[in-house]
Specification:
Blueprint lengths: L14 H8 L7 E4 L6 H13 L5 E5 L2 H14 L6 E5 H9 L13 H9 L11 E4 L7 H10 L2 E6 L12 H8 L4 E4 L8 H10 L17 E4 L3 H14 L4 E6 L2 H12 L8 E2 L18 E6 L8 E6 L13 H11 L2 E9 L16 E2 L1
Parallel strand pairs: 1-5, 1-6, 2-3, 2-4, 4-5, 7-12, 7-13, 8-10, 8-11, 9-10, 11-12
Helix pairs in contact: 2-3, 5-6, 6-7, 8-11
Length: 370
């Protein structure tokens, strides 16, 4: 017998987003799909709070530690004091459930078969400590994790968009639903509340598969494709953007951590009003691991960690790094679809070299050069 959903209404949700939450019972497994800008991360946080209000511990999971920080900050603004809810990564959840000696595989994940057998040995026992799991950007997690979660969690709700898969160990919506079981509910959320029409239209050029999402009504400036004569010119341009829009969050997305480190050093000497920030997944703690993504200023992030983030301005700094890639490659197109849709107001796609990268050709009408 299912428990009726009794959501906590928050004024920051649109009617469509409230309808999405209302469609999710507080029991069972569910998959919620939606395009970039539809509010999946916000809805995932609301869903986690709703489940935690039943009294059972609830974890809001992500693959990325940087996204975990974003979700943690959202939860702080939503959670009722004392509510047993927290943000975590999928890796940390597995460690907390099976210990630090949980068997690993060469792809950086776990031996799902071994863990599933361990979970099956204790499934069916009523344990009040068994958590509800809510997963954000679930397309970037492997099917094995969902097969395990089906046995090791009280319920699983996954928010995902299979057009935004950036990792080799990923899942389609069908694979997620199949792993969670035949009774898994499916809900779709529409709308794009992040991008302008111009940014969303450029993103559509790179989208692979899926239903055509609604184009936003809000209009803005055309995205810019900009040639940089060198890294110094790129740094100067970023510094000018930061000076002209001191309240904006500027995300500089790179494909090279070496470039990110070089940009960081130069921007630190550029006299910006706000100290620049850089995220490195290799850092275990400190300034390159724990960021404040709510304050204005420049944030340097690798494209692999950009999922789930948004910025007022996005600079894709090194598009030339993809010059040797087939411009029709689904992996390349997904990467640009994700990076472009991080931008709320302004988008600059930068490149260096003597020839425009092939994947940026033929974009007349969607962009301007500058």
């Amino acid at each position: 017998m299912s428990i009726a959903n009794t959501p906590v209404l928050h004024p920051d949700l649109t009617p469509a987003q409230r309808d999405c939450l209302d469609a999710l019972p507080l029991t069972g497994n569910h998959v919620v799909s939606g395009p970039p800008g539809s509010g999946k991360s916000l809805l995932a946080a609301h869903r986690a709070v709703h489940l935690a209000l039943t009294g059972r511990p609830t974890l809001l999971l992500s693959r990325s530690n940087l996204l975990r920080q974003v979700l943690r900050d959202i939860l702080v603004g939503l959670a009722v004091p004392g509510t047993p809810v927290e943000a975590s990564t999928a890796h940390l959840w597995v460690y907390s459930r099976f210990g630090r000696d949980a068997p690993r595989t060469e792809d950086g994940w776990f031996d799902w078969t071994a863990l599933i057998h361990r979970a099956a040995a204790t499934s069916g026992r009523i344990d009040p400590a068994t958590p509800h799991l809510v997963v954000d950007e679930g397309q970037d997690l492997p099917p094995g994790l969902y097969q395990l979660a089906r046995l090791a969690a009280a319920s699983v709700t996954v928010f995902a968009d299979e057009c935004q898969r950036l990792t080799e160990t990923n899942s389609t919506l069908t694979e997620i639903a199949d792993a969670l079981g035949r009774s898994t509910g499916r809900v779709e959320i529409a709308g794009n509340h992040r991008n302008t029409r111009e940014i969303a239209s450029l993103a559509e050029h790179f989208r692979t598969g899926g239903n055509l999402p609604d184009i936003p009504f809000r209009s803005g400036a055309l995205p810019v494709i900009r040639h940089y004569g060198g890294i110094g010119v790129l740094v100067d341009d970023i510094a000018v953007m930061a000076a002209r829009q001191p309240r904006h969050r500027i995300g500089v997305i790179v494909n090279s951590l070496r470039l990110a480190a070089d940009l960081m050093r130069r921007l630190e000497r550029a006299g910006l009003a706000q100290e620049p920030q850089m995220y490195s997944s290799a850092a275990s703690a400190g300034r390159y691991r724990d960021l404040d993504l709510t304050r204005p200023g420049v944030v340097l992030v690798h494209r692999a960690s950009a999922k789930g983030l948004d910025f007022d301005t996005v600079v894709i700094a090194d598009a030339e790094s993809d010059s040797g890639t087939d411009p029709t490659s689904a992996t390349l197109r997904m990467a640009y679809y994700v990076m472009i849709t991080r931008a709320r107001e302004r988008l600059v796609v930068g490149w260096q070299g003597s020839r425009l990268p092939r994947h940026l050709e033929g974009l007349d009408g969607w962009v301007r050069t500058g």
